[in-house]
Structure formats: C-alpha cells, structure tokens
Fold 3-methyl-2-oxobutanoate hydroxymethyltransferase.
Amino acid sequence: DRRRTVRDILGRKGAEPIVCLTAYTTPIARLLDPHVDVLLVGDSLGMVLYGLPTTLGVTLDMMIAHGQAVVRGSQRALVVVDMPFGSVQESPAQAFRNAARVLAETGATAVKIEGGQEMAETIAFLVARGVPVMGHVGLRPQMVHTLGGFRAQGREEAEAQAIMADAQAVAEAGAFSLVVEGTLAPVATRLTQAVSVPTIGIGASVDCDGQVLVIDDVLGLFSDFTPRFVRRYADLSGAVSEAAAAYSADVRTRRFPGPEHVFGLKASV
Ligand code: KIV
Ligand code: NA
C-alpha cells in the first residue's frame, strides 16, 4: 500500500471524505497510519507537547525533528508539516528556503502555510518550485495577537467574504487542499462549494471534503480545555493517572518490583 500523494488528495474533492489527524511522534504515527489519509505535523505541538501558551514560539527545528519522527512512523499516509510562525512571512525566497529544508530533512511530502490573499504569491512561488502546499484559512492561530484572541470566524458578512477571498486566492495559487478552521458552518460549506480543491475542516462544517482534529484532543490526553469542535474518542488522561497512581502505590509498598522483574541467581545452580 503506497504512500498517498497530493494527486490522491486532490482527487477526493466532493468524494469520500479525507481523514486527517495530527501526529507528532513515531509511535503515534505508527498507530494512526493505517486509519488516515493525511498525518499533519501541526505546530499545535508547541501547546500540546511543549506547554507553550501559543504556537508563536514553535521553531523550524522543532517542526523538522517531529516531521522526521512522523515520517519514520508512517508508510501510507501523506505527511504534511506546518511551517511555523516567522518561517515564511518575510518573502517567497525565505519561505522556499525553509520549506525546502523541511521536505529535504524530514522526507515529508508537503508543507502547510497559514494565510490568505497575502500569502498567495508565496504559495505560488513554492508550488512552481516543487513544494506542495496545503493552505489554512479561517481562524489562524498564528494571528492570535492581531486577532486579540480566538473566536469563530465569519460571523459578519464582510468577514465571511474575506475568508472566501482568502480561500479562492490560496486555491488559485496552487494549494492542493485547504484547512478551514474555526469558521461558521454555512461559510465553510459555501467555501467548499466555491473552491476547486478539497477543504479539510476543523470547527468548520460536515460538508468539508475532509476533517482534521488534534490527536491529543481525540485521545483525551490534552486536558487544559476541550474546544467545542472536538469529539473525544478516548480518555487517556484518566488511564495515565490511574497507571501512575498504581505504580506509585506499588513502589511505596514494595510490591514492585516482583521476583519476575529482577535478575537473580538461577535457582539451585
Ligand atoms: O497545528 C495544527 O494542529 C493545525 C490543525 C489543527 C489544522 O494546524
Ligand atoms: Na497549525
């Protein structure tokens, strides 16, 4: 079963929904790979794995290290690596230099760039030079300080039209798909009908051409808060707490290690 290509993803427009989850590590990538079309090494890893308050502190080196881990742990999913804040905004040349490092050093197939009309020129520059790009419109976490916080996008008609224009510009620039985040459902639906490339929703609409969630949210592992758009499929936080409590009790009462866990002389030798 060969690895999915950007052409495979493009072919899913208006067809069977594209299944996408984030992954940051080799063991999780191994577990998810049989079940998904796309593994996204999201810059959400800054908050999920490193405890950062926003994604702004994530570096290119962090993305490359985790991109390598996810490529090693997968065979069949298309791996997309987020370009972190500051790595693409200066110029198309800066973006190409950094995106080329990501593809060359990780073996991932594509990068994802947050942005709308203002990033269209950069996206076209990259696509024309061999870097497949996934777009990301609507709520853009790297814009947190400009936005003054996070809220669903597209409530006012002007805002909805700006998101539509962003999506059109990014699709026309050559992006092979488009994450639509935190966008009013009717706007995300309209946008999905308007663009020629597949949309992948998160807090968007069931009518998007695919869906993505942060894996730690899905597993109930990241418990700071759970946004409305998350569906939890497991409670790993509970499982981890129980395991840690049981281990702690065993150590304190000398029930661990047991005879089977220690190296002793063989009996009667
Ligand atoms: O960083 C991330 O995990 C993302 C997805 C939520 C789309 O960008
Ligand atoms: Na991201």
User: Anything to note?
Assistant: The first strand starts at residue 18 and ends at 22.
